[in-house]
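Memo to structure team: turn this sequence into structure tokens by end of day. - J.P.
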Amino acid sequence: MSEPEVLIDVQDGVGRIVLNRPKSINALNHAMVQQMASALLEWSDDDRVRCVVLTGAGERGLCAGGDIVSIHRDAVSGGTGSLDFWRDEYVLNAAIASYRKPYVAIMDGIVMGGGVGVSAHGSVRIVTERSTVGMPETGIGFVPDVGGTYLLSRAPGELGTHVALTTSRLSAGDAIACGFADHFVPSERLDEFVAALATESVEAALARFAEPAPESELLAQRDWIDAAYSAGSVGEIVDRLQADGGEAAAKAAEQILAKSPLALSVTLESLRRAAAAPSLEDVLDEEFRVSTACLRSHDLAEGIRAQVIDKDRNPQWSPATLEDVSRGDVAAFFAPLGDHELGLAPHQPTKGLS
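Reply from structure team:
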């Protein structure tokens, strides 16, 4: 028999969740999300559990994101399984953010997309010198989700906009500076840190094992990033980057121009809306509308095909250029879903873990 994809256990007052698909860097599927949600719901009123610890099996990382091969299957066939997955995933993201007990996420190694959703909304987020954190969605014709636009829009200045449009990766120092993580613990001390939680509080363990975070190279580049990414459209952002004259700005422009023009334009609008949203729940509701539209868009299926299925790295985006993307094209991604809304925000019907 194969091993469970999520290992769930309670020992010495610690609820342990281990994502256990190391060959795929613990990529999330629907069943894994449901198992995590069930455990958190059970532990929320269980006096035996003082805190929750999330880790990933293997040496490569916590979680590389969602299972995009199954998303591609739905996108090309008209299936709806991905919508069910996203619905439960976003509900889980919100539940993690509001969890009443310490939720300790060990963000060691690769933490991408859906991996960010199950870690960066936690109350105690730990990175190491091996951490690589990112939201790579625009590279496959998708838009940051799992509450990613909420986090990105609240990073200092326009750093989150830069990360979202270029799919830049965050180091440990960058992740802390951008609000995706809280504490730095060297990877060689992680086992000791987690073991200490059996006998002492999270705060006491952090006091013993956390060290000053490395400097953030991204934060040091805020001047040119803020100047370029404060523009009102992706096209204008690219123009400003190309006019900057710096090597880093030129590279950023090149990275952006390789992505889906439509996904980029929707992403920028999503970030601006998220920045003004009153809560994570409101943002997740909006992201569900966008994800629903993405599933039926040309570019998501094409982006996954080019990057993962055929691996030719030559996506044929439609529209093909930023200039060809209309306001109507972007607005369509935010259309209300009627009875199919996620409904997490307080002014909408409440849907929690069940």
